[in-house]
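hey m, so remember when u said the C-alpha coordinates were messed up on ur end? i reran from scratch. heres the input so u can diff it against urs
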Amino acid sequence: MQTTREDTSRDAGVHAAATAPSTRLIVVRHGHTAMTDAQMCSGGGVPGPPLNGSGRQDAMRAAAALASSGAVAVVASPLVRTLQTAEVIATELGVEVHEDDDWRECDFGRWEGLTFVQMRERYPEAASRWLRVLSAAPPGGESLAQLAGRVTRARDRVAAGHPGQTVVVVTHSVVIRSLIHLTLEAAPNAIGRVRPAPGSLTEIRTGVDGEWTLHSFGARP
Protein backbone atom coordinates (compact mmCIF):
# COMPACT_ATOMS: atom_id res chain seq x y z
CA MET A 1 0.00 0.00 0.00
CA GLN A 2 1.42 3.32 -1.07
CA THR A 3 1.35 6.41 1.14
CA THR A 4 0.38 9.58 -0.68
CA ARG A 5 1.70 13.04 0.02
CA GLU A 6 -1.78 13.96 1.27
CA ASP A 7 -1.72 11.07 3.77
CA THR A 8 1.72 12.08 5.00
CA SER A 9 0.65 15.70 5.41
CA ARG A 10 -2.48 14.70 7.30
CA ASP A 11 -0.54 12.33 9.57
CA ALA A 12 1.99 15.06 10.30
CA GLY A 13 -0.81 17.42 11.26
CA VAL A 14 -2.35 14.87 13.60
CA HIS A 15 1.04 14.20 15.19
CA ALA A 16 1.68 17.92 15.65
CA ALA A 17 -1.69 18.38 17.34
CA ALA A 18 -1.09 15.38 19.59
CA THR A 19 2.33 16.61 20.68
CA ALA A 20 1.47 20.32 21.02
CA PRO A 21 1.77 21.44 24.64
CA SER A 22 -1.49 21.97 26.49
CA THR A 23 -2.51 25.36 27.78
CA ARG A 24 -3.20 24.97 31.51
CA LEU A 25 -5.44 27.20 33.58
CA ILE A 26 -5.12 26.65 37.31
CA VAL A 27 -8.18 28.38 38.71
CA VAL A 28 -8.08 29.41 42.36
CA ARG A 29 -11.07 30.48 44.39
CA HIS A 30 -10.22 33.42 46.66
CA GLY A 31 -9.69 32.80 50.38
CA HIS A 32 -12.25 33.12 53.15
CA THR A 33 -13.91 36.45 53.96
CA ALA A 34 -16.38 37.37 56.68
CA MET A 35 -19.17 37.12 54.11
CA THR A 36 -17.96 33.71 52.95
CA ASP A 37 -18.07 32.43 56.52
CA ALA A 38 -21.55 33.91 57.05
CA GLN A 39 -22.78 32.29 53.79
CA MET A 40 -23.81 35.63 52.34
CA CYS A 41 -24.19 36.68 48.72
CA SER A 42 -21.10 38.66 47.78
CA GLY A 43 -21.27 39.47 44.10
CA GLY A 44 -19.36 41.22 41.37
CA GLY A 45 -21.30 44.47 41.43
CA VAL A 46 -19.38 45.84 44.43
CA PRO A 47 -15.70 45.73 45.51
CA GLY A 48 -16.64 43.33 48.29
CA PRO A 49 -15.01 42.33 51.56
CA PRO A 50 -11.29 41.72 52.18
CA LEU A 51 -9.78 38.41 53.20
CA ASN A 52 -10.01 37.59 56.88
CA GLY A 53 -7.32 35.73 58.83
CA SER A 54 -8.41 32.35 57.47
CA GLY A 55 -8.48 33.81 53.97
CA ARG A 56 -4.90 35.02 54.21
CA GLN A 57 -3.88 31.52 55.29
CA ASP A 58 -5.79 30.12 52.29
CA ALA A 59 -3.83 32.43 49.99
CA MET A 60 -0.48 31.42 51.46
CA ARG A 61 -1.28 27.71 51.15
CA ALA A 62 -2.36 28.17 47.54
CA ALA A 63 0.82 30.11 46.78
CA ALA A 64 2.98 27.36 48.26
CA ALA A 65 1.13 24.72 46.25
CA LEU A 66 1.64 26.70 43.03
CA ALA A 67 5.32 27.50 43.58
CA SER A 68 6.46 24.67 41.30
CA SER A 69 3.57 24.90 38.82
CA GLY A 70 5.57 26.69 36.15
CA ALA A 71 2.88 29.35 35.86
CA VAL A 72 4.01 32.35 33.82
CA ALA A 73 1.18 34.73 34.73
CA VAL A 74 -1.49 35.44 37.33
CA VAL A 75 -4.83 36.86 36.19
CA ALA A 76 -7.45 37.96 38.71
CA SER A 77 -10.90 39.39 39.16
CA PRO A 78 -10.62 43.05 40.23
CA LEU A 79 -12.55 42.54 43.49
CA VAL A 80 -10.73 43.05 46.79
CA ARG A 81 -10.69 39.43 47.94
CA THR A 82 -9.41 38.05 44.65
CA LEU A 83 -6.70 40.69 44.27
CA GLN A 84 -5.45 40.04 47.80
CA THR A 85 -5.31 36.30 47.10
CA ALA A 86 -3.65 36.84 43.72
CA GLU A 87 -0.98 39.16 45.11
CA VAL A 88 0.22 36.49 47.55
CA ILE A 89 0.40 33.92 44.73
CA ALA A 90 2.07 36.32 42.29
CA THR A 91 4.74 37.21 44.85
CA GLU A 92 5.55 33.52 45.28
CA LEU A 93 5.78 33.06 41.49
CA GLY A 94 7.72 36.28 40.87
CA VAL A 95 5.16 37.70 38.43
CA GLU A 96 2.68 40.58 38.42
CA VAL A 97 -1.10 40.38 38.78
CA HIS A 98 -3.14 41.22 35.68
CA GLU A 99 -6.74 42.28 36.40
CA ASP A 100 -9.55 41.16 34.12
CA ASP A 101 -13.08 42.37 34.82
CA ASP A 102 -14.63 39.36 33.08
CA TRP A 103 -13.41 37.12 35.94
CA ARG A 104 -15.44 39.05 38.56
CA GLU A 105 -18.16 37.25 40.51
CA CYS A 106 -21.74 37.03 39.26
CA ASP A 107 -23.76 40.16 40.00
CA PHE A 108 -26.39 39.12 42.55
CA GLY A 109 -28.43 42.32 42.27
CA ARG A 110 -30.86 42.69 45.18
CA TRP A 111 -29.55 39.49 46.73
CA GLU A 112 -26.27 41.21 47.57
CA GLY A 113 -25.57 40.99 51.30
CA LEU A 114 -28.32 38.46 52.01
CA THR A 115 -27.53 35.08 53.50
CA PHE A 116 -28.41 32.12 51.30
CA VAL A 117 -31.29 31.32 53.68
CA GLN A 118 -32.63 34.88 53.43
CA MET A 119 -32.31 34.79 49.65
CA ARG A 120 -34.45 31.64 49.43
CA GLU A 121 -36.98 32.95 51.95
CA ARG A 122 -37.47 36.35 50.30
CA TYR A 123 -37.14 35.30 46.66
CA PRO A 124 -38.13 31.60 46.61
CA GLU A 125 -39.19 31.38 42.97
CA ALA A 126 -36.33 33.48 41.58
CA ALA A 127 -33.76 31.61 43.70
CA SER A 128 -35.06 28.24 42.52
CA ARG A 129 -35.09 29.26 38.84
CA TRP A 130 -31.66 30.88 38.93
CA LEU A 131 -29.77 27.60 39.38
CA ARG A 132 -32.01 25.67 36.96
CA VAL A 133 -32.66 28.08 34.10
CA LEU A 134 -29.60 29.73 32.55
CA SER A 135 -31.57 32.75 31.34
CA ALA A 136 -33.06 33.46 34.79
CA ALA A 137 -31.46 36.29 36.77
CA PRO A 138 -31.60 37.59 40.34
CA PRO A 139 -33.71 40.78 40.59
CA GLY A 140 -31.45 43.52 39.24
CA GLY A 141 -28.62 41.03 38.72
CA GLU A 142 -26.96 38.77 36.17
CA SER A 143 -28.16 35.50 34.65
CA LEU A 144 -25.91 32.46 34.45
CA ALA A 145 -26.11 32.72 30.65
CA GLN A 146 -24.71 36.25 30.81
CA LEU A 147 -22.02 35.08 33.21
CA ALA A 148 -21.09 32.19 30.91
CA GLY A 149 -20.58 34.62 28.03
CA ARG A 150 -17.95 36.66 29.83
CA VAL A 151 -16.32 33.59 31.42
CA THR A 152 -15.88 32.14 27.93
CA ARG A 153 -14.31 35.41 26.73
CA ALA A 154 -11.99 35.53 29.72
CA ARG A 155 -10.89 31.91 29.34
CA ASP A 156 -10.25 32.22 25.62
CA ARG A 157 -8.37 35.50 26.10
CA VAL A 158 -5.98 33.88 28.57
CA ALA A 159 -5.45 30.92 26.25
CA ALA A 160 -4.77 33.16 23.24
CA GLY A 161 -2.23 35.17 25.19
CA HIS A 162 -0.42 32.17 26.66
CA PRO A 163 -0.61 29.21 24.23
CA GLY A 164 1.05 26.10 25.62
CA GLN A 165 1.72 27.76 28.97
CA THR A 166 0.39 27.59 32.52
CA VAL A 167 -1.59 30.52 33.91
CA VAL A 168 -3.12 30.99 37.37
CA VAL A 169 -6.56 32.60 37.46
CA VAL A 170 -7.93 33.86 40.80
CA THR A 171 -11.69 34.19 40.76
CA HIS A 172 -14.96 33.30 42.51
CA SER A 173 -17.30 30.43 43.35
CA VAL A 174 -20.03 30.93 40.75
CA VAL A 175 -17.47 31.79 38.06
CA ILE A 176 -15.67 28.49 38.71
CA ARG A 177 -18.99 26.64 38.62
CA SER A 178 -19.76 28.25 35.26
CA LEU A 179 -16.30 27.39 33.91
CA ILE A 180 -16.75 23.72 34.85
CA HIS A 181 -20.27 23.72 33.40
CA LEU A 182 -18.89 25.03 30.11
CA THR A 183 -15.99 22.57 30.09
CA LEU A 184 -18.17 19.52 30.70
CA GLU A 185 -21.14 20.79 28.65
CA ALA A 186 -23.26 19.77 31.63
CA ALA A 187 -26.97 20.21 32.28
CA PRO A 188 -27.97 23.68 33.57
CA ASN A 189 -28.82 22.45 37.07
CA ALA A 190 -25.31 21.00 37.47
CA ILE A 191 -24.03 24.47 38.41
CA GLY A 192 -25.80 24.26 41.75
CA ARG A 193 -24.15 20.91 42.51
CA VAL A 194 -20.56 22.10 42.28
CA ARG A 195 -19.05 23.83 45.31
CA PRO A 196 -15.40 24.93 45.12
CA ALA A 197 -14.05 25.67 48.60
CA PRO A 198 -12.26 28.94 49.40
CA GLY A 199 -8.60 28.67 48.47
CA SER A 200 -9.14 25.52 46.39
CA LEU A 201 -7.50 24.80 43.02
CA THR A 202 -9.22 23.60 39.85
CA GLU A 203 -7.36 22.83 36.63
CA ILE A 204 -8.53 22.78 33.02
CA ARG A 205 -6.38 22.15 29.95
CA THR A 206 -6.70 22.23 26.19
CA GLY A 207 -6.75 18.75 24.66
CA VAL A 208 -5.31 17.53 21.35
CA ASP A 209 -8.54 18.60 19.63
CA GLY A 210 -8.32 22.09 21.10
CA GLU A 211 -11.25 21.46 23.44
CA TRP A 212 -11.00 22.17 27.16
CA THR A 213 -10.87 19.26 29.59
CA LEU A 214 -11.24 19.18 33.38
CA HIS A 215 -8.14 17.68 35.03
CA SER A 216 -8.83 18.37 38.69
CA PHE A 217 -11.45 20.10 40.79
CA GLY A 218 -11.39 21.70 44.21
CA ALA A 219 -7.96 20.51 45.34
CA ARG A 220 -7.21 21.79 48.83
CA PRO A 221 -3.55 22.75 49.30
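this time it looks ok to me. Residues 20-219 form a domain with the Rossmann fold fold (CATH 3.40.50.1240). if urs says something different then somethings off w ur setup not the seq
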